[in-house]
Amino acid sequence: MKISIWFSKVNLKIKVITTCLIILSACLSFGQNDYPYISPACSTCNSNAGSCGEDPWAMYKNQCVSYVAWRMNRDNGTPSTNFFFKNSMFGSNGDMNNCSPSNAAERLSNACRWDNILSANGYLVSSTPTVGAIAQWNASEDLDGYPGGNATGYAGHVAYVESVNNNGSGNVSEYNITACSYGTRNSIYAP
User: What is the C-alpha separation between 26 and 45, in angstroms, rounded?
Assistant: First the structure.
């Protein structure tokens, strides 16, 4: 099976790897939130990301990276043990606050790092969305794909591609576009 990752970077070298994964059939409709770490008590997650604690894959709960890692694990048949997708899947080194990792063996802590680290580890990086892919924005990039749209913060943003439209845009589900909460956006283009 080809693992495709949709990222906003269009000038990255595309490298494809294949791997065998058990895919769970998704019985949920687009827009339904089944993320297991919904926590209204963590209303301070934007000002203090760690206040909600870590999820089992070592990312902060109620953040976009936790939600996308959970979706990748759920959809690849590893939702509770032997996680396929986790913060340290390539290594535990590096400055987690740096959006430009220096090598491929660094943590995925901030969304702004995902395109570089995953590409360096053999994942397809493309500006074309596919169902089940990860949409990624770097720090301060436009989230809407249109001039004057919302911009990401210093950590960037990731979302999960639920479906693709005939015009090439993607429909995504995500966490933490609105403080600590789930949301969906339609007709999103790479910045």
Answer: 28
pLDDT higher than 80, residue 182: yes
| Three-class DSSP labels, 89-115 | CCCCECCCCCCCCCCCCECCCCHHHHH
Q: Which of 6, 3, 1, 14 is nearest to 137 (CA)?
A: 6
pLDDT of residue 161: 93
N-term to C-term CA, the chain: 27
Q: How many domains, in total, are found in the chain?
A: 1
Judge whether 163 lies within some domain.
Answer: yes
The share of the chain scoring above pLDDT 90, in percent, equals: 15
Reading phi first (left if > 0) and then psi (alpha if -120 to 50, else beta), residue 176 is in: left
**CB-based contact 114:134 (threshold 8 Å):** yes
For 31, the 3-state DSSP assignment is: coil
Instruction: Give the separation between CA 4 and CA 128, rounded to whole angstroms.
Output: 9
Does residue 52 lie in a domain region?
no
1 within some domain: yes
Q: Is the pTM of the predicted complex or chain greater than 0.85?
A: no
Q: How far is CA 47 from CA 58, 118, 161, 180, in A?
A: 19, 27, 27, 10
